[in-house]
Design a protein that fits this description.
466 residues, alpha/beta, Aminopeptidase, 2 domains, 9-stranded mixed sheet, 6-stranded antiparallel sheet
């Protein structure tokens, strides 16, 4: 006989938040998203830099009928603007006029890494090295004693552009930063603070040890290493000044756990969101509202520069599109709904003291929705209005998307921002949405397969909403 619910249980069901929605058909949901997760992981293995992500995106857009934006030509199905190979904007024309606004998702494709200094190569005591300048917020010690791969674009002295990838193929050489053995680290290293276990000027990448066989040469190892690069790529030493060369973890993305329910990979912040946005955008054929995809650069360093969202990139592009469609740019922005898609800090039981359990996002419990980010007293953030938060939550509920809401740790513990504030300045409604991540900004970040797939479904629903 079916047990009847008490009045209190009925009341709880009616007015209290449902805490176990993520448990409904959990195994089925995981299996439904397995193909998507496999494709996502393969994409991560290919696109480890912002240039590689944008290059692959352009290829996918063109194969799906998109063309490079030309102000003098009519907009067909959709167009894209490739900003210096490191950020991108794409739009699909909707059935409604542009003046009704667009549906935009913005994510960033840059991630913490090690860049080369302008004059990087040197030798010391029978070993060859590259000097680096770390990019973004990292724990420097996490980058020592792991295999590193070299990715980059070099403009050689004769003007030729060359893309370099070394360390990703199983037969490739890799590189590394050395660390002290525990037997000798007592005085030299163990007394340092966590942030200084490895200092910035100690992030020197080991690149070789064999010298040129000539006693007259002052730096024979450096000359030998430079001659290898010259023979293979036509490089000379001064080419490093203009080159954009990044060192990233050489390992591949992998499933984590006996149940393969988690994904471990480099640069899931924020390519987990960028990939979901790209895939959902490509599915938004013949939408009611114009749809827009923004892949931004420089978020990890404040969004400055001409490829970051603090620039006029979106403003100028929408202005140009609006003029072509005889729309008022200001009205277009004011009528637009936007998602700033970035990852959230996942609740980590091992380090629970920095989080508010009641206001944290948990791996495997769905999409993270954060109406504001920032630090301390909501500094450096944009806060979504009650009306817009309600519309987004209703959209997720109507589409059957599992979601959760939280903050980036306890109020006084720290914090961080996203690109939301730069979009809000233009007059559009914007909210943060992504997935929770463990070990964020490390060389091997962790997400949940369920969350990753739910995010993709949420973005499809957002682009299709009427």
């Amino acid at each position: 006989m079916k047990e009847e619910l008490s009045k209190a249980e009925l009341l709880q069901k009616e007015i209290m938040s449902k805490k176990d929605a993520y448990l409904e058909n959990l195994i089925t949901r995981l299996e439904e998203g397995r193909d998507y997760c496999n494709d996502y992981m393969a994409f991560l293995n290919f696109a480890k830099t912002e240039r590689e992500f944008v290059k692959k995106t352009v290829s996918l857009l063109e194969s799906n009928g998109f063309s490079r934006y030309d102000k003098s030509e009519k907009i067909g199905k959709g167009v894209y603007y490739n900003n210096r190979g490191k950020s991108l904007i794409a739009v699909t024309k909707g059935s409604r006029p542009l003046s009704d606004g667009f549906r935009m998702i913005a994510a960033h494709v840059d991630s913490p890494r090690l860049d080369l200094k302008p004059n990087p190569m040197y030798e010391s005591d029978s070993l060859g090295y590259f000097k680096t300048h770390y990019y973004g917020g990292i724990k420097k010690y996490q980058w020592a004693a792991i295999p590193l791969a070299m990715h980059g674009t070099v403009i050689t002295h004769d003007g030729k552009s060359i893309d370099i990838v070394i360390g990703e193929d199983d037969q490739d050489e890799v590189f590394c930063i050395t660390d002290l053995l525990p037997h000798l680290s007592g005085k030299a290293q163990d007394s340092r603070t966590t942030r200084e276990v490895i200092k910035g000027e100690e992030l020197n990448i080991l690149i070789g040890s064999v010298p040129i066989d000539d006693e007259k040469i002052k730096e024979p190892i450096k000359l030998n290493l430079m001659s290898i690069l010259n023979k293979k790529y036509g490089m000379v030493e001064k080419d490093f000044v203009s080159a954009e060369i990044e060192f990233v973890p050489a390992f591949k993305s992998r499933y984590i756990g006996f149940d393969k329910s988690l994904i471990g990979a480099y640069a899931q912040d924020d390519r987990v969101c960028a990939y979901a946005a790209l895939k959902a955008f490509l599915k938004s054929e013949t939408p009611e509202y114009w749809t827009m995809l923004v892949l931004a650069d420089k978020e990890e360093t404040g969004s400055d520069g001409n490829t970051g969202l603090a620039s006029s990139m979106i403003f100028e592009f929408v202005t140009s599109i609006s003029e072509k469609e005889n729309a008022d740019r200001r009205i277009v922005f004011m009528n637009s709904d936007c998602i700033s898609s970035d990852v959230a800090a996942g609740y980590d039981p091992t380090f629970s003291s920095v989080s508010d359990p009641q206001n944290s996002c948990y791996l495997g419990r769905g999409v993270s929705v954060e109406r504001y980010t920032g630090a301390a007293g909501k500094v450096y953030t944009s806060e979504a209005s009650a009306e817009y938060v309600w519309r987004i939550i209703k959209m997720l509920d109507d589409a059957g998307i599992i979601w959760q809401s939280g903050e980036l740790g306890k109020v006084d513990e720290g914090g961080g921002g996203t690109v939301a504030k730069f979009i809000a300045r233009l007059g559009a409604d914007v909210i943060d949405m992504g997935v929770p991540v463990l070990s964020m900004h490390s060389p091997f970040e962790v997400t949940s397969c369920l969350d990753v797939y739910e995010l993709y479904k949420a973005f499809k629903a957002f682009y299709k909403q009427s």
